[in-house]
Design a protein that fits this description.
By secondary structure, the protein is of the alpha/beta class. The chain has eleven helices and 15 strands.
């Protein structure tokens, strides 16, 4: 059986279509209260994985365990506590937002009061009695999110929830997602091909490329890889290295450059002063920034990125 500390885990799930592994031996682990950012280029296998997590398709190999239960064996019991927003949600355009939720509420058998609660959560209260065909794309997406929250799920699975939204709509959805664990005790799995989106909401990140997980850890660990470095080029790096070392700054030589961890502005001014006092000629001082974006691109090299 699965590790009880995980709310959701997959054990080496593989999905093969026509002899090709679209998802290949994927093991994900989600702990309670996390916002797990599932990140990868389009075509990396994200949607296929999400469909397996929701029991919409069966893995060719491996299994999915949610709330400590095996999905293939206890699908209904599990899915009663899982909310999802996958692809574009379907609506009855001629019904109001409220009535759309009412049809779903009957199936889920939750109290009527829950409709206004979820509409408030996604800030659609004012539009509750308007027909969905009058909604903007962002409103429809928020209604889809309201629908996924209706049954008070323990786990919420969102596939590209900000797809097609304008920047303001993106910020609104992000803000809402960020509050879900703390305010409503929900655990969230959020897929995206945009690193910036995951970076702003996720606590943990899993990066998928060509159907395989290539990185899975806290977002802070990924951020640590994005450290700035300072480069100084001078005429005598050996002396430079000694001078800096005597000031407690360790450097590494790269060609004619000395490289070190980045320093605050005042400290950089001091370093340059010390080197000049020691009779060295400074040619260039430059800073290199490795962005999270670069790390992501390096990790997923060779994939179709957007």
């Amino acid at each position: 059986m699965g590790n009880q500390s995980y709310l959701l885990e997959t054990n080496g799930i593989t999905k093969t279509y026509k002899g090709i592994n679209v998802v290949n031996g994927l093991s994900l682990q989600l702990e309670e209260g996390e916002i797990y950012g599932f990140l990868g280029p389009n075509g990396a296998g994200k949607t296929t994985t999400i469909r397996m997590l929701l029991g919409l398709i069966k893995p060719t190999e491996g299994n999915v365990i949610v709330f400590g239960k095996e999905l293939t064996k206890e699908r209904i019991a599990i899915l009663n506590q899982v909310g999802s927003l996958v692809e574009s949600p379907s609506y009855y355009p001629h019904l109001t937002g409220k009535d759309n939720l009412e049809t779903l509420r009957k199936i889920l058998q939750v109290p009527k009061s829950r409709i206004m609660e979820v509409l408030e959560m996604v800030r659609l209260t004012k539009m509750a009695d308007r027909k969905v065909k009058e909604y903007s794309l962002g409103m429809k997406q928020r209604l889809g999110l309201a629908a996924s929250l209706l049954g008070r799920p323990k786990l919420l699975i969102l596939d590209e929830p900000t797809n097609g939204l304008d920047p303001a709509g993106m910020i609104e959805i992000r803000e809402l997602i960020r509050q879900l664990p703390e305010k409503y005790g929900m655990t969230v799995l959020l897929s995206s091909h945009l690193l910036s989106e995951i970076d702003q909401v996720a606590t943990k990140v899993g990066i998928i490329a060509k159907g395989e997980i290539i990185f899975q850890d806290q977002i802070s660990v990924l951020r640590e890889k994005a450290i700035r470095k300072l480069y100084i080029q001078m005429d005598d790096w050996e002396t430079g290295q000694k001078v800096l070392s005597s000031h407690g700054i360790e450097t590494v030589r790269q060609d004619t450059w000395l490289t070190m961890a980045n320093q605050p502005d005042g400290k950089i001014a001091e370093i340059v002063k010390e080197l000049v006092y020691s009779g060295l000629n400074i040619y260039r001082v430059t800073e290199e920034m490795v962005s999270l974006e670069d790390i992501f691109l390096n990790l997923t090299r060779g994939e179709e990125t957007l």
